[in-house]
Design goal:
Blueprint: H1 2-15, H2 32-40, H3 47-67, H4 75-100, H5 105-123, H6 149-152, H7 154-178, H8 181-208, E1 215-222, H9 236-248, E2 255-259, E3 265-270, H10 278-289, E4 294-305, E5 316-319, E6 322-333, E7 339-343, H11 357-364, E8 386-388, E9 394-399, H12 406-414, E10 419-424, H13 433-449, E11 453-457, E12 462-465, E13 471-475, E14 481-488, H14 495-499, H15 502-520
Parallel strand pairs: 1-2, 2-4, 3-4, 9-10, 10-11
Antiparallel strand pairs: 1-14, 4-6, 5-6, 6-7, 8-9, 11-12, 12-13
Helix pairs in contact: 1-2, 1-3, 3-4, 4-5, 5-7, 5-15, 7-8, 9-10, 12-13
């Protein structure tokens, strides 16, 4: 019973640490009860089964409390996501338990840190990608603590959290063994420094950082169209009229970018005929009145074809001999009428892709992990295309879920983006922590890349975020309106934008080496 209580305590500590309601200081203690429970049963006869149960209890509590809001989109999707993510976390901890029985405390601790980071890295890569609870995201509401993410990305936060947890856990074990209070005093000093020094460094960076680049004026549109009752029953013509009306309430002669949300033009627009679409005509109508501006918006596109040579890995089959690519896209129109398209490339599990379809379709049939939206396989593009204005200002456009991926966002920076735009629709989850967490994760992208962000949410929170992750203006949930404001463009590239998730790649290498050495060693500890 004691170990069950410890397991529950770990789950609760991790949950109350999470944005946007939580306090991240608890992340530095969150794993200690679970680590202690595992240590006390490490050499029991049925320890693997016990550790599996205790770890799963911790992680399902953490997942449910922090991401239960998926239920508002689909109960099946919520339970699938919570259970699968908890099981994968549990598997990580169980493998640590196995390695810890074969190695020393130091080696097993290094393995745990690196293996957890490897798991988070996997969550950024595989088809069941769900990096929402990657530990480094936990500081999204306290960006003054993590200004050094411009060097490490969120994996620096994960490493920081685990180092402190392991250090405190080691002190607990030493005190339990020796009953010497000086151990606790030394631990308090050491771990206080481990926590405070990165925060102090962050505050120094924040106080000395000067935003780079010149000011540009943006107008952000928030039409507030309910995706369940209105969006897919509202014509593009009506949307165009609404966006035109919203723009006129805020735009000035100095406005350079007008930004509208994800798939706001939701009619079935054929890709080959985009040039004659209502969406493009709306953009041109607005730009004819304001020739200094550029128009950026989301749109749903479809390309139907019969040529089998055009089939891509995400192409859908309509019926025999007829295929179609379904796109969640952004389009960009300049004052001279030239335009470009970008197709969303990081897809929401289930709603926009069917993970490992060849394996799972015979098992699941047409059941999908619908996390919000319409069930369909979306077609992606490989490169991170940057839209250039008539004044050669580059904007990298992250569509909804893409803004959760740090290294992915850096691709726009390397391709010349001077600022980032996030276009999204967060109403699928209701007025919950879901859309707030999504907003706060955008602040991490601003710090990592030192790019200002213009965020347009159909139903969510639209905002302008500066290069330090500070929200300088916003428009709240379920409000229709506009934001007009200035942000700075920047052409300097951060170390993280150049190096990406290098910490994770190092961690993968180390964890593989320790794993192979430990399982091939017959006796004794390494």
């Amino acid at each position: 019973m004691r170990n069950i209580i410890l397991s529950i305590l770990s789950g609760l500590l991790l949950a109350v640490s999470w944005p946007t309601y939580g306090f991240p200081l608890f992340l530095f203690f969150g794993f200690i009860p679970l680590l202690f429970a595992e240590y006390t049963i490490r050499y029991n006869k049925y320890s693997k089964m016990q550790v599996f149960g205790l770890a799963f209890l911790t992680f399902i509590i953490w997942n449910l409390i922090t991401t239960w809001w998926i239920y508002n989109s689909t109960p099946f999707g919520m339970w699938f996501a919570e259970i699968v993510n908890s099981l994968v976390m549990t598997l990580v901890f169980l493998i640590y338990h196995i390695i810890a029985k074969k190695t020393t405390f130091i080696i097993s601790s290094i393995f745990l840190i690196c293996f957890w980071m490897s798991f988070e890295y996997l969550h950024l890569q595989w088809q069941f990608s769900w990096p929402w609870l990657n530990l480094g995201n936990g500081f999204a509401n306290f960006t003054s603590w993590i200004q050094w993410y411009e060097y490490t990305g969120t994996f620096g936060g994960t490493l920081w959290i685990w180092i402190v947890n392991i250090s405190i856990f080691k002190s607990v074990l030493l005190f339990k063994e020796h009953k010497d209070k000086t151990i606790l005093y030394r631990s308090a000093i050491r771990n206080g420094l481990l926590i405070s020094i990165p925060i102090i460094i962050s505050f120094i960076i924040l106080k000395t950082y000067k935003e780079n680049g010149k000011d540009i004026e943006v107008v952000i549109l928030q039409p507030n169209i309910n995706p369940y009752t209105e969006k897919y029953n509202t014509t593009d013509k009506h949307i165009g009229t609404l966006l035109d009306s919203l723009t006129k309430t805020a735009i000035t002669a100095d406005t350079q970018f007008i930004i509208a949300p994800e798939t706001v033009f939701a009619d079935t627009n054929r890709l080959p005929y985009f040039s004659s679409s209502i969406a493009r005509k709306t953009a041109l109508k607005i730009l004819n009145q304001y020739p200094n501006a550029n128009f950026l918006s989301g749109i749903s596109l479809i390309d139907v074809f019969e040529d089998p040579n055009k089939i891509k890995k995400q192409t859908n089959t309509y019926k025999e001999g007829i295929y179609y690519d379904d796109y969640n896209s952004a389009f960009f129109v300049r004052p001279d009428g030239t335009d470009e398209l970008y197709h969303k490339s990081k897809l929401v599990v289930g709603v926009e892709n069917f993970p490992y379809q060849n394996i799972l379709k015979p098992i699941l049939g047409d059941a999908m992990i619908d996390l919000g939206g319409t069930v369909a396989k979306k077609t992606t593009q490989e490169d991170r295309e940057v839209f250039l204005s008539k004044d050669s200002i580059g904007v990298g456009t992250l569509i909804c879920y893409e803004s959760v991926y740090g290294e992915f966002a850096t691709g726009y920076i390397r391709n010349g983006a001077n600022f980032l735009a996030i276009i999204t629709n967060d109403a699928w989850w209701g007025n919950t922590q879901g859309h707030r967490q999504h907003l706060y994760y955008a602040k991490l992208r601003a710090i990592e890349t030192r790019r200002s962000i213009a965020r347009s949410a159909n139903t969510g929170i639209s905002a302008i975020i500066d290069q330090t992750g500070n929200i300088i203006s916003s428009l709240g949930y379920e409000k229709r309106g506009t934001i007009i404001g200035k942000l700075k463009i920047n052409d300097k590239i951060t170390f993280y934008a150049k190096a990406g998730n290098y910490l994770a790649r190092i961690a993968v290498f180390i964890s593989i080496v320790i794993f192979l050495v430990s399982i091939t060693r017959r006796k004794g500890k390494i």
